[in-house]
Amino acid sequence: VQLVQSGGGLVQAGGSLRLSCAVSGSFYGIAAMVWYRQTPGMQRELVARISREGSIDYSDSVNGRFTISRDNAKNAVYLQMNSLQPDDTGVYYCRADVLQADWDPGTMVWGRGAQVTVSS
């Protein structure tokens, strides 16, 4: 099982980017799907989380600007980032809690990360 990330890049402040992440391989299902970001010298920060049922949480720093969504048919999660600011610069990682059976508590699988750079 692996996560394939796409998206990211360089954008001016106020611009938008969209990140995508898809799970491939053999598995029973996917529980939560999460986006994190890491900036130099800082711990990895949870940005947004979406449960299997669609419950969503955002960090205060992105609430109202970022939108997380998932397509269960495609085993994919997305992060639409609007009104980007230089403080949003960092490496963005997706994580999926992959299930191998209905009773499985889940295994965290991580994407390789995507650089997002917001210039002022």
Characterization of the model:
This protein is an all-beta fold and 120 residues long. Helix content is 0%, strand content 57%. The strands form 2 sheets. Strands 2, 4, 5, 6, 9, 10 and 11 form a 7-stranded mixed sheet that branches. The protein has a 4-stranded antiparallel sheet with strand order 1-3-8-7, with no helix packed on it.
Task: Reconstruct the topology from this structure.
Layout: E1 2-7, E2 9-12, E3 17-24, E4 29-38, E5 45-50, E6 56-58, E7 66-71, E8 76-81, E9 90-99, E10 107-110, E11 114-119
Parallel strand pairs: 2-11
Antiparallel strand pairs: 1-3, 3-8, 4-5, 4-9, 5-6, 7-8, 9-10, 9-11
- Work out the number of β strands: 11
Percent range for β-strand residues: over 45%
The amount of helix comes to under 10%
- Low confidence ranges: none
Counting DSSP H or I runs of 4 or more residues, the number of helices is 0
Q: Which structural class fits the helix and strand makeup?
A: mainly beta
Distance between the termini: 38 Å
- Rounded average pLDDT: 95
Shape: elongated
